Prior knowledge:
The protein is α+β, with helices and mostly antiparallel strands. The protein has helices at residues 14-27, 47-70, 182-187, and strands spanning 79-82, 88-96, 108-116, 127-134, 139-140, 146-147, 153-157, 168-172, 188-191.
Amino acid sequence: MGLQFSGRITNLPFELALYIQRWLHVLLPDCLMVGRSVLGGLGNISSGSLRTSLDCAWNNFLSQQQQQQQRTFIQMRTVLKVVDNSGAKKVMCIQAKKGKKGARLGDTIVASVKEAHPNGKVKKGEVVYGVVVRAAMQRGRCDGSEVRFDDNAVVLLDKQGQPRGTRVFGPVPHELRKKKHLKILTLAEHIA
Length: 192
């Protein structure tokens, strides 16, 4: 539903009113009242209510930008949670394999162990390989849906590409099947 002019705008130039109309239509779908033109009575409303609408639009735009900035690739220095019983708690990504700028679901990374259990197989400071099994960045699926998790998580691998742990905690996406990580899928509690 597009916005309509329902009268002559007397206080603003036409180009400025059209520019404001486009931005309000893009940024303010929640703030608009249904059945009423925002710019129809612009000559009758005060500059304070227009300023309030523009402030609301700007705040909506900034919140969308912040959400996009929070959900990015897993890149260098990203801290990930380890969701297997290999002994590590948290790792920090050193590099995404295959020369990509970042890693997504199912990609292999090189990481450094930042926190570890005292009696685990993996020690603090060790450089390990891992597969990203949960990522906060959304990923589209073939059926049109999108999958996104609350945290960034990884399962540690050995040099042959097999999991170092014997259990995998939490949900893992079925996209790992395409990346040939079937052993992780068999160890997982829940496949999302």
